[in-house]
Amino acid sequence: MDMDQYLEVFLDESREHLQAVNDNILKLEKQPQDIDLVNEIFRSAHTLKGMAATMGYEDIASLTHKMENVLDLIRNQKLTVSTAIIDIIFSAIEYLEEMVSSISEGQDGKKDVSELVELLDQIEKGEPVKAMIKPTVANEGHFINTDELDLDEFQITIIDQTSEQGFFPYQITVTLTDDCILKGARAYMVFESLEDRGEIIRTNPSVEEIEEGNFAQQFTMIFLSTVEAETIKTIIGKVSEVKEVDIGNLVTISNTEKDALPINEENLTSQLVQEEAAATTEKSASGTSSSTSKTIRVNLERIDDLLNLFEEVVIDRSRLEAIADNLSNSDLTDTVEHMSRVSTDMQSLILAMRMVPIEQVFNRFPRMIRGLAKDLNKQINLNVIGADTELDRTVIDEIGDPLVHLIRNSVDHGIELPDVRKQFGKQEEGNLILRAFHSGNHVFIEIEDDGAGINREKVQSKAIENGLISASEAELLTDDQVANFILSSGFSTADKVSDISGRGVGLDVVKNKIESLGGQISIESKAGKGSIFSIQLPLTLSIIATLLIKVQQETYAVPLSSIIETAILNKAQLMYAHGRKVMDFRGKVIPLVSLETIFEVPLKEVNNKQEYSVVIVKKGDKLTGLIVDSFVGQKEVVLKSLGNYLKDVFAISGATILGDGEVALVLDPNALIK
Fold it and tell me: In terms of Cα–Cα distance, which of 655, 673, 542 is closest to 616?
């Protein structure tokens, strides 16, 4: 039997079952006596084992079978749930995720699972779980003088004293793609992917510089692990925008006979789950059963193709409307009007099919926070609200990295250690709320913690030091306005930088990423009470509300989300500052930019008008006026990519086809605001 036709179904359902196991294991750790949870986990594992065996993926089936045996003992009350068992099951889940991911990339899904199978077998037999098995050494190694790495005496001592314990030191150089925007976030994802594989003892450049994104496209780390080099290379290579991974054995010249280093901590947990976009339309609520399926799986590319085809229908609809008006035929007019109503409903339905629950992003965080809490010796309760809130899948694909960065900041520097919380009369367990909800044509995502809040005095002092504001101006600002300075470029108040995060480090990059999605971020904070990071995003990036404007004979579309208002400016009101055109906008002097000049629009007619048409656009707190020839009107348009040959065109984010068949370029106002 040819199984290729079932591959996509296998991959989709495997991801769903693994996510279900992951979610329920987290719940089981908190409710170890809940047998219903164990039964749910067992059913998911059993189904996955059967599918893998049918498809011929024996390594997946073997590992799942052993995991299933352990779960069977738990549900029959022959084995008690413990943190150690939970950790090993999580390791099994991570192995299974890696194998499923390799299959999706066209590989055979094979992986050496003998070590993990042996651990599960020990649990099943009631034996003490022994240490991890020593891996083979990488064939190609770097034998490097420690002086070149600028290792301190303590680090060299660690290498010398622990080489006999079966751990290997690797020097890993990671190169990111040239177009990588969130370099700091990507570097963190690399660190996170290795978190339960070993320990990083040094990085070059420093952790602070890496988190700030202050490196070219490459960084190096010294990593202590029991995991094989090729496995580490594969894990890092799966992180988005990683271009190349160079890994080798690090051996000190004074100890060339030694090929291993110890790891200082055991049972490091919580690898960041890679986001897998589920190729499916809306799925029925989890936990319910039905005798017949009411959903079907549709590849997202097909929905995109359908939307592209529908644009042609919209163009033809507009032409038919014009023809009907010219012919003045009542029957034709009625038919065209009916077609317009139907096609409008079709458009809404197609766009709704592109909407997916933000749960796909939120699902990665419970396990991540569990690991962070253990590493930081903190107690953290995560409460997820509104995971069923839907966003366009284009936004879903992009919002994960900024959320990871914000959540890690809240966990690391927002929520205090248990003894500190107790001193201030708080519960030892900190609370972190991840909330999503609709409001109008936007989706809001909030990260709220009940930690220490943002220190106004420290932020205000740093803002004055950086020249962002004067001391007299600072006194007039509210606490929240001061707190928002941590989103400024290069802003940091951290006394020390950890390998988890530093509040303020890289948050300007997060802000820029959110604004590139047409969104905004703001902060509310109360000293000693906690902070709320609020992100506002458009429901969809594929269809946007715009203002159509004319420059000579060219039509452009400006996203309404960037527009403050439009204005008519008399030439007498035009001013100059430092050789540039400026205008007075509500008591504030803002620069003016001529689109005719920026885009070198061919001159068809000389403009002798005594007035300028101006579109005032914003980027954060910065405003700029765009000089145009005339306003056409508002219109919702479908944003189209310019393709690979015309990418990275200055101040242009895409194009759209108007109803009369004309192509209009969609502006990126952020690029025009300095």
Answer: 673
Read off the pLDDT of residues 201-257 as tens digits, 9 standing for 90 and up: 788 888 778 877 788 888 888 887 877 788 888 889 888 888 889 887 765 433 333
Tell me the residue length of the chain.
674
Q: Taking the mean position of all CA atoms in its chain, how far away is CA 281?
A: 21
* Cα–Cα distance measured from residue 148 to residue 7, given in angstroms and rounded to the nearest whole number: 49
Parallel, antiparallel or unpaired: strands 554-559 and 663-667: parallel
Statement: the pTM of the whole predicted model exceeds 0.70: no
Q: Which residues contact 495 (CB under 8 A, 6 or more apart)?
A: none
CA distance 87 to 381: 18
- Quote the tokens at residue 55: 């498809």
Q: What is the pLDDT of residues 442-465, one digit of tens each?
A: 788 999 999 988 888 888 888 888
Phi/psi-derived region of residue 219, left when phi > 0, alpha when psi is between -120 and 50, beta in every other case: beta
Letter for the amino acid at 641? Answer: S
Beta bridge partner(s), residue 526: 530
Interval 366-382 mean pLDDT = 87
Cβ-proximal residues to 82 (8 Å cutoff; 6+ apart), any chain: none
Query: Mean pLDDT over all residues of the chain?
Result: 78
Nearest-angstrom CA–CA distance, 249 and 251: 6
**Are the CB atoms for 547 and 633 separated by under 8 Å?**
yes
CA 311 to CA 299: how far, in whole Å?
19
How many Å apart are CA 500 and CA 502, to the nearest integer?
A: 7
Neighbours of 602 (CB within 10 A): 9
Element (H, E) at 434: strand 430-439
Q: Give residues with Cβ within 8 angstroms of 546, minimum separation 6.
A: 557, 558, 559, 560, 634, 635, 636, 637, 656, 666
Closest CA to 17 of 58, 63, 51: 51
More confident residue, 112 or 450: 450
Distance CA 505, CA 187 (A): 13
In this predicted structure, what is the pLDDT of residue 72? 87
The label of the residue with tokens 């939120």 reads: 362
Number of H helices, E strands in the chain: 21, 22
DSSP bridge pairs for 247: 172
d(CA 431, CA 409): 14
Provide the token pair at 292.
């017949």
Report CA 144 to chain centroid distance, whole Å. 36
Integer angstrom CA distances of residue 558 from 124, 548, 554, 620: 63, 6, 13, 17
> What end-to-end distance do the CA atoms of the chain give, in Å?
61
3-state SS, one letter per residue, for 352-400? HHCEEECHHHHCCHHHHHHHHHHHHCCCEEEEEECCCCEEEHHHHHHHH
User: Going by DSSP bridges, is the β-strand pair 242-249/168-176 parallel, antiparallel, or unpaired?
Assistant: antiparallel
Each residue of 313-359: pLDDT tens digit? 877 777 787 788 888 888 888 998 898 888 878 877 887 787 888 88
**Residue numbers annotated as active site:** 46, 68, 409
Q: Are the beta carbons of 72 and 46 closer than 8 angstroms?
A: no
Which residue has 């986990």 as its token pair?
41
